[in-house]
Amino acid sequence: MTGTMNKTDMQHLIAERVAQELKGPCAVNLGIGIPTLVAEYMKEDNIYLHTENGLLGVTDVEEEDIDPNLVNAGKLPVGEAVGASFFNSSDSFAMIRGGHVDVAILGALQVDETGLIANWAVPGKNIMGVGGAMDLLVGAKKVFVTMSHTSKDGSPKLLKECTYPITSTRQVDMIFTELAVFEVVDSQLKLVDLMPGATIEEVREKTEAAFTE
Amino acid sequence: MTGTMNKTDMQHLIAERVAQELKGPCAVNLGIGIPTLVAEYMKEDNIYLHTENGLLGVTDVEEEDIDPNLVNAGKLPVGEAVGASFFNSSDSFAMIRGGHVDVAILGALQVDETGLIANWAVPGKNIMGVGGAMDLLVGAKKVFVTMSHTSKDGSPKLLKECTYPITSTRQVDMIFTELAVFEVVDSQLKLVDLMPGATIEEVREKTEAAFTE
Amino acid sequence: MSKILNNLNEALSAVKTGDTVLVGGFGLVGAPLTLIDGLTEKDVKDLTIVSNNLGESGKGLGILLNQNKIKKGIGSYFTSNRDVGDKYQKGEIELELLPQGTLAESMRAGGAGLGGYYTTTGVGTDLAKGKEEREIDGVKYIFEKAIRADVALIRAYKADTLGNLVYYKTARNFNPLMAMAAKTVIVEVDEIVEAGELDPEAIVTPFIYVDGIIKAQQVLTKKGVVNV
Amino acid sequence: MSKILNNLNEALSAVKTGDTVLVGGFGLVGAPLTLIDGLTEKDVKDLTIVSNNLGESGKGLGILLNQNKIKKGIGSYFTSNRDVGDKYQKGEIELELLPQGTLAESMRAGGAGLGGYYTTTGVGTDLAKGKEEREIDGVKYIFEKAIRADVALIRAYKADTLGNLVYYKTARNFNPLMAMAAKTVIVEVDEIVEAGELDPEAIVTPFIYVDGIIKAQQVLTKKGVVNV
């Protein structure tokens, strides 16, 4: 059933599921892609969004209020919440690396069965960009990963071992796909939820990494 | 003749002489004691005073305008200049250590004949305080030292070698006493000025350190 | 999620025996006088206090010192309190003296998730003894370790209800750095305003660093410390 | 002692062949568009450019890249300009890729007179290759060296005549750090005000860091970059 879902619907489904895990008060950093969508589904009003280019208190913005000098890390226009503050890049990453951001929600290319992720480089191509991915992985109190369960060609992205360069030696805390939700417990993946329409058989089939159920 | 001068007059004489060396635009950090008096004699209006507890743009203050939360590093009340700014202690020492302060004017207990100074600790006593002395010595573009030429007991303070612990391995640039002004050139003291009433004989007699004339 | 605390007991509940506690201020200026006073009433000991000075004799942190609650002091200028020297002589307190810039930078480093850094300050002096020296691009530096703590007790001017802070003149000093470097950060302020009342461009400490806010009951005035 | 400069030539006079130049901005936001444009007109080469990105293809620093004036790029996200990869493949440019937090912190360290620092970011990854690893209190860190430069070209919102700076929203980003880390700091601004008009508590970059000020001739608007 999930096989017939279009990409946008799938992304929103994942984003909505992630939002359920966010309990305020907390400060959350949203990566580019699916993570950005999570903001649309947050139910509590005491969740504050941090963007590493220098703003705590990110909100969405109406078209007519767009300010070209007010953007998020994906360079998309955003608004500022009541109680927001601006700061420079080193102060922003001090917050991240120093463990002051509660949750980082990131995309990933691959996740291994111990919870390590690869999300910044592909072998055989020039390594051209890393941005804040490595900082967020070492620093956020909790790291949630969102991604499609498989690649475009259907191959698993939850692997025994990452074949792409890892982003950090720190394991993530939760992984959200359109099929399943995993927690990382004692360096092992634990299936904690099946997404609507997904079956345990489908998850087993499309997951190379070992996981407990 | 200088032997009959009282302490306050002597301190003011030195302070006035130091002020002649300050050419704006520049940022100057004044230590406690004689250095603080230098502000009274500065002739140019584009000399800005920095105090390491977090203010660039220190001025003097009238009694009725004293604010207990606006003080210098000596914890004395000060005022703020037009264009002043406040910052935290790490930002303040970033300015100092990073070489952004043009001149630091410090007191000293001893100076050796290469221009090294001791001004923070006395052997045989507990080492209890250092404050910003070491930071200023490594960081300021130029360091000027002010002190009485001899100790209370008449013994020289310009020595072959400091007997007190040195404050830094960085040599100071100029030394000002009530008798003479020295520059440090190629790790040697060079007498560049005699103070009013002082004779070269008196300076030679009261100086243990070698110096060129 | 109001961070506004009702009383000193609540404000100081995070401080436990054996903790490392950062205490703001440069002398009395910017010191959390109310929280320090509360700490002298609290049954804790073996504290490591990180603060520029340990108060004056019989005042502020000086009271805590005389109560033998301080196991170790880390600061840059203990000279302001003659009792510190006496205790040190008797072996009743450990002291770690750091240059003022190093003290400040080490707390910033701790708060920023760094392990330590290389500084020129102190190279070749008695305060560098036992510290690693390294040459980088022809310049000598010594290694200084980051400072992290259990609790920070700090002073600000205004907090909003979320915990964003602004400071007042030279009462800023170490406070914003201490807010970064401790697990639990309690701030005493002159005024609490609604979220949105502070200029987002001028907030010095974003609320992410602040756990609890209490109104100051003791303030520094021209005539000295006054109860309000 | 006015720091206000009359023209781009004067503003860019400090930039010499072989220099290391810090260029502010996160993409176009907070980038000194006027100064970058001026640099493309200037006869210099072999520059080391430290900037989060090297512009976009054929835009901003991307022009400088295509003029073969950049010997080396240090940044966190070169991906924004596909030409960088092409040049790199051909061996026409050196690249040093740093995590964004490390890029920012290294400039702050340089400006603050530090030699380098230990960070957790990047430990155990390909970007840690060749970097010293050290365990401090049971946590692994890698050593990162401070960055210092000859010139910084930055963007602020307002300068006063002394050179104090405030920024605007997320256009702040790397600019205040670059102001700390270069020998000569040139800033382009939207507005120049009299000294005393900026709130002393809200000044982000004190004038001590700033050497020259020029009014922006190109600004980022909702409709893109516009000449003013």
Automatic annotation (TrEMBL), chains A, B:
Keyword tags: Transferase
TM regions (residue ranges): none
InterPro entries found in the cross-reference section: 3-oxoacid_CoA-transf_B, CoA_trans_fam_I, NagB/RpiA_transferase-like
Highest taxon listed in the record's lineage: Bacteria
A single GO molecular function term of this UniProt record: CoA-transferase activity
Pfam family of the protein (one): CoA_trans
Family: Belongs to the 3-oxoacid CoA-transferase subunit B family.
Protein's UniProt name: 3-oxoacid CoA-transferase subunit B
Organism: Planococcus salinus
From TrEMBL, chains C, D:
The protein's name: CoA transferase subunit A
Organism name: Planococcus salinus
Domain of life: Bacteria
SUPFAM superfamilies linked to this entry: NagB/RpiA/CoA transferase-like (SSF100950)
UniProt-recorded Gene Ontology molecular function terms: CoA-transferase activity
Keywords attached to this entry: Transferase
Record has Ubl conjugation as a keyword: no
InterPro entries listed in its UniProt record: 3-oxoacid_CoA-transf_A, CoA_trans_fam_I, NagB/RpiA_transferase-like
SMART domains attached to this UniProt entry: CoA_trans
